[in-house]
Amino acid sequence: VQVRNIFRAVATEHHRPERVLEQVEHVLQRLNEPGAPFVTCCYAVLDTASGEVVYSSCGHPPALLARGPGEVEELENCGPALGAFEHETFVERRARLDPGDCLLLYTDGLTEALDPAGEAFGGDRVRKAFVELAGRDGITAVRIADELVHRVVEHGASEHLADDLTLIVVRRLP
């Protein structure tokens, strides 16, 4: 079963992140396939007019929100991974992107990428690189994402990462 398809089907009926995650969890529990993997995710809805982000995050690395030069907030997780436990309850959290703010959502492939000596790129490097990049005048979200991937690949000294790497960068324009 492709979890992505479950999300698509559920999201057509429900729009609140916590409700979408509850329904996806319900479907995963009903499938109850032996050895079925758990799923980490962050489901977020952005109101582009107000900059409000409503999200629910399950076992995913915490999103980062760069607010100004050298300032970064870590957005709270909302629950465990989907499929990990029966009858989980999920909550929504809210954040606001003000003009110029930048949001980073990413998988653990960003933090867990290893260099040849076995050292992970790590959360501290992610935060430091993100806040530095987001603070650059005129830099686009696409350029920030490209540069983060470039730094991880450089850290690993190879384009072949051991884990998948997915990230989304959103910048609210001034």
Short description:
Helix content is 33%, strand content 21%.
Q: Can you tell me the overall shape?
A: globular
Please summarize the sheet with the most strands.
4 strands, antiparallel
Q: What fraction strand?
A: 15-25%
Cα end-to-end separation: 41 Å
Q: Tell me the helix content.
A: 25-40%
Strand order of the largest sheet: 4-3-6-7
Following the backbone from N to C, one meets helices and strands in this order, namely HHEEEEEEHHHE
Low-confidence segments, ≥5 residues, pLDDT <50? none
Q: How many strands?
A: 7
Structural class: alpha+beta
User: Mean of the pLDDT scores?
Assistant: 87
Count of helix runs: 5
Report the radius of gyration as a whole number of Å: 17 Å
Description:
- By secondary structure, the protein is α+β, with helices and mostly antiparallel strands.
- It has helices at 3-11, 17-31, 108-111, 122-134, 141-156; strands at 41-46, 52-58, 64-68, 71-74, 93-96, 102-106, 167-171.
- The radius of gyration is 17 Å and the shape is globular.
- A four-stranded antiparallel β-sheet has the order 4-3-6-7. A three-stranded antiparallel β-sheet has the order 1-2-5, covered by helices on one side.
- The longest helix is centred in the last third of the chain and has 16 residues, at 141-156.
